[in-house]
Design goal:
GO terms for molecular function: hydrolase activity, acting on carbon-nitrogen (but not peptide) bonds, in linear amidines; metal ion binding. The structure is a single chain. This protein is of the alpha/beta class. Helix content is 35%, strand content 21%. It has two domains: 291 residues, Zn peptidases (Aminopeptidase), CATH 3.40.630.10; 110 residues, 2-Layer Sandwich (Alpha-Beta Plaits), CATH 3.30.70.360. The chain contains twelve helices and 14 strands. The strands form two sheets. Strands 1, 2, 3, 4, 5, 6, 12, 13 and 14 form a nine-stranded mixed sheet that branches. The radius of gyration is 24 Å and the shape is elongated. The model has no long low-confidence stretch (mean pLDDT 95). The protein binds zinc ion. The site of zinc ion has 6 residues, from loops.
C-alpha cells in the first residue's frame, strides 16, 4: 500500500502546545500540567478538544459520562466504526503528552483524511475518554469502563477528599450520571480500537526508535505482605537467635527480582515499612508491597505462585509468620495479532523502523480490549519520564507516531 496521505506536523505540535497551556501551573503548582478529571481545567480542555474536532470537520457528541466522540462518517453507515483515542485528564503536575498525544494525534490523523477527500467504508471515531488517570477518586478508566459496560454503581458512589461522590462530580461537570448505561457501545458497533500513547519507559529510546508496536499490556498483581518475627535487643541477641523480619523481607525482595527475571516479567517492591523502627532494635515486623506484571496471564500466575512459595520457604527457615494479602489482580490484555502485523507493515511501508514491545502501564485500551480488537502504537519518551513536568516527546516523534496511526486507520476503515 502506498502512502496516500501525510499528517501536518506543525499543526499537530501547535495543538499539543495549546492543550498543554490549559492547566499549566494550576492548582498552586509551579510546574507541569494539572488537569484532574472533571476539574475546571479539565472542562476547559474538553472545550478545546470539542472545538478542535469541529474545526477538523468531525461530528461531535458527548456521552452521559463525558466521553467526547468526534466522528468522520464513512460510506457505509451500518459498518462498525474504527475507533482511536486516549485521554486529556492528567495527574498532579503531569506533562504535555500522556493521553494528549493520542487524542490530538487521532484528531490530526482524521483531519488529514478528511482534507485529502479519501472516502472510507467505515466511520472513524476519535474519543477523548473521561478520567483515565483516576487521581481524584482513586480509580481510573471511567470513560472506557462506561463505554464497555464495566462502570458500576459502586464506582459512582466513591467519594473524593471533600466527600463529593463520583455521580455528583459528573453532574457538577454537566453530565448525566444517572444515564451512564447509555454510554455503553455494543461490541458489534466497533471494528477495532487503536491507541497511540507515549511509552513512559526507556525501551524505544534505548533502541533509538521513534515508534514501537505494543504486543501485550501487562496487568499488575498487587500483594501486601506482613512478616512477623520478634523485636529483640540489637546488642544482646546473637545472630543465630534472631527472628529478624527485615532480613526475611530482604530475602523475599531478591526472590522477587530472580523470579521476575526468570519469567521475563517485572516485579517491584516499592513500599516497605519495618517496626518498631529503632536503630538498636531488631525489626519484629515488616510490611511491604509486591507488584508483579506479565503480558501472559498464565505466566503471571506462575510468578505469583513462585513468590508465595519463596515467602513460605524463607519464613519457615527463619521462624517468621507471614500473611499475604492479594490487593489487586488486573488481567493482562493481548493486542490483536492482525493489528500488530498491520502496524508493523504500515511502518515498513513508510520506512519507519520499529520494534514490538510489551506495555507496562494501564491505558483505556485495557478496557476497550474487552469488547473489540485492540492495538497500541508507542511513541518514544525522553529518558522514560512520565507523570512529571519533565515528560517529553520530540515534535518529530509525535509526527511519526501520528503518521503510523493515520496509515493504520486508513487500512482499518477502507
Ligand atoms: Zn495515559
Amino acid at each position: 500500500m502506498i502512502i496516500i496521505n501525510q499528517i501536518n506536523q506543525q499543526r499537530l505540535w501547535k495543538t499539543i502546545q495549546e492543550l498543554g497551556n490549559i492547566g499549566a501551573g494550576s492548582n498552586g503548582t509551579e510546574e507541569g500540567v494539572t488537569r484532574l478529571a472533571l476539574s475546571l481545567e479539565d472542562l476547559e480542555a474538553r472545550k478545546y478538544v470539542i472545538q478542535l474536532m469541529e474545526e477538523s470537520g468531525l461530528d461531535v457528541r458527548v456521552d452521559p459520562v463525558g466521553n467526547i466522540i468526534g466522528k468522520l462518517e464513512g460510506k457505509d453507515k451500518n459498518a462498525p466504526v474504527v475507533m482511536t483515542g486516549s485521554h486529556v485528564d492528567t495527574v498532579y503536575q503531569g506533562g504535555l503528552f500522556d493521553g494528549a498525544l493520542g487524542v490530538l494525534g487521532g484528531i490530526e490523523a482524521v483531519r488529514s483524511i478528511k482534507e485529502s477527500g479519501i472516502e472510507l467504508t467505515h466511520s472513524i471515531e476519535v474519543v477523548s475518554f473521561t478520567d483515565e488517570e483516576g487521581t481524584r477518586f482513586g480509580t481510573g478508566y471511567i470513560g472506557s469502563k462506561a463505554m464497555t459496560g464495566y462502570l458500576d454503581e459502586a464506582t459512582l458512589k466513591l467519594k473524593d477528599a471533600n466527600g463529593i461522590t463520583y455521580a455528583e462530580a459528573l453532574v457538577q461537570a454537566g453530565f448525566d450520571a444517572t444515564q451512564y448505561k447509555l454510554a455503553i457501545r455494543k461490541p458489534e458497533e466497533i471494528k477495532a480500537y487503536l491507541e497511540m500513547h507515549i511509552e513512559q519507559g526507556k525501551v524505544l529510546e534505548e533502541h533509538e526508535l521513534a515508534v514501537g508496536v505494543v504486543t501485550t499490556i501487562q496487568g499488575p498483581v498487587w500483594l501486601e505482605v506482613s512478616l512477623n518475627g520478634h523485636p529483640d535487643h540489637a546488642g544482646a541477641t546473637p545472630m543465630n537467635m534472631r527472628k529478624d523480619a527485615s532480613l526475611a523481607m530482604a530475602e523475599v525482595m531478591l526472590e522477587v527480582e530472580r523470579i521476575s527475571t526468570t519469567y521475563q516479567g517485572v516485579g517491584t517492591v516499592g513500599k516497605t515499612h519495618v517496626e518498631p523502627g529503632g536503630v538498636n532494635i531488631i525489626p519484629g515486623r515488616a510490611v511491604f508491597s509486591i507488584d508483579l506484571r506479565h503480558g501472559d496471564k498464565e505466566l503471571r500466575t506462575k510468578m505469583v505462585d513462585e513468590v508465595n512459595t519463596a515467602i513460605k520457604e524463607i519464613c519457615e527457615r527463619r521462624d517468621i509468620i507471614a500473611e499475604i494479602d492479594m490487593k489487586k489482580a488486573v488481567d493482562p490484555a493481548i493486542c490483536s495479532e492482525s493489528i500488530v502485523d498491520m502496524l508493523e507493515e504500515s511502518c515498513a511501508e513508510m520506512n519507519i523502523p520499529t520494534m514490538k514491545l510489551p506495555c507496562g502501564a494501564g491505558h483505556d485500551s485495557l478496557m476497550m480490549t474487552k469488547v473489540t480488537d485492540m492495538g497500541m502504537i508507542f511513541v518514544r519518551s525522553k529518558d522514560g519520564i512520565s507523570h512529571n513536568p519533565k515528560e517529553w516527546t520530540d515534535e518529530e516523534d509525535c509526527a511519526i507516531g501520528t503518521q503510523v496511526l493515520l496509515q493504520a486507520l486508513i487500512k482499518l476503515a477502507k
